[in-house]
Amino acid sequence: MPTAVFIHGTGVRRPGFETLARHVTAGLTALRDDLRVVPYYWGDRHGVTLAAHGASIPPGTGQDRAISDFPEWPAEEDDVAAWGVLHADPDAELVLAAAAADRADERPPGSVSPEHVLQERLSTLAAESDAVVPEWASAMSEAATRLGGHPLLGPAAASLDPNELAVIAARALVAHTVHRALDAGHPLIPDGDSRDAWVDRIAQYLGAPPGGSERGVRGRLLGAAGGLASRAVLRHRHSLTHAAHPAAGDVLRYLCRGEGVRSELRAMVADLGPPVVLIGHSLGGIMALDSLVTTPLPQVRLLVTIGSQAPFLYESGCLPSLVHPQPLPPHVPDWLNVYDPRDILGYVGARLFPGRVTDTAVDSRQPFPAAHSAYWTNPRVYRLIAEHLP
């Protein structure tokens, strides 16, 4: 009789583990009634805990309180939050301004629209950006060209006075430049003072008077929206840390002190008769692979990893048992690797270990992070495992 050892992933604790193990067991035995499923629970013994009950969390964030309990939230924090919104979407203020626009009044013949004036100044800025922000001339030139052709520029101009339009355009240019730098992993990002100086300099170049970097009404709207989120995160940091730390902490603890769980898993497998299948989800797949690489386990005839980061850790030099370009040892059995393309924690191994790994995609029709946990309610996952069982 084949035995499947099911190894859970990060953040799983009792009683949730029992529910998961029953579900996995039912799903597998429904397709192979001769299969014995042995769940391996490592969460309590080898998972992470906050040993001092959160003593490392900064003071003042330990109690969950309503945002209204903190009326003295500094204005600069709303400013930081507003820039967080702009870094994520540099066009956010432009969208708000365009949405507030009324139908444009007719202009006298021969008059020049604020949009056209700004477009001409943006075109000049694109050509002369090295004189305005020499530190980021190329990126600013690209941002100015992009903004000059933006379809929302006209509607936004209709709802703003020229000075406010110049300020919002300046913030959009700086936000787009920082957004691109963050995406590219640029090692130097301007601090708040430098950023504000850029905004003021560019706003004046676009026609605003000095001091144009101060936030307008729409800036305050962004600050209010972003600030609520920032305040909620900071003021609930204690509970958020307790809720989130098992998932990330389990991985860190395993990478630092993983031999205990590997030894325990190997001892469990040694007591089982062949054929044995190791089925590991997420971190459980890493544990299974590491255990097989470091010690031949002849009872194990199949390794199944589900939504696992093992290939990524290997390629990045972080897998404890094997470092790229070391080959997979011959004693490691057939390896079925199941991943959902929407699960950003699921990786593929066939290109790293040609001929040794079978990568198979499944679609849970769930966005991340739900996709990382939805494997066990997807019937195709169970069918794939059953098809590969010895």
What is the element layout, followed by pairings?
Blueprint: E1 3-7, H1 16-29, E2 36-40, H2 43-46, H3 75-88, H4 92-99, H5 114-132, H6 137-148, H7 153-159, H8 162-183, H9 192-205, H10 217-235, H11 237-257, H12 259-270, E3 276-281, H13 283-294, E4 300-306, H14 310-315, E5 334-339, E6 357-361, H15 370-373, H16 379-388
Parallel strand pairs: 1-2, 1-3, 3-4, 4-5, 5-6
Helix pairs in contact: 3-8, 3-10, 4-7, 5-6, 6-8, 8-9, 12-13
In brief:
By secondary structure, the chain is an alpha/beta fold.
What can you see in these coordinates?
The chain has about 400 residues and is of the alpha/beta class. It is built from 16 helices and six strands. Helix 3 packs across helix 10, helix 6 packs across helix 8 and helix 12 packs across helix 13. It is elongated, with a radius of gyration of 28 Å.
Bin the strand percentage.
5-15%
Q: How can the largest sheet be summarized? A: 6 strands, parallel
Which spans have pLDDT < 50 for at least 5 consecutive residues? 61-75, 213-218, 223-245
Described by the principal axes of the CA atoms, the overall outline is: elongated
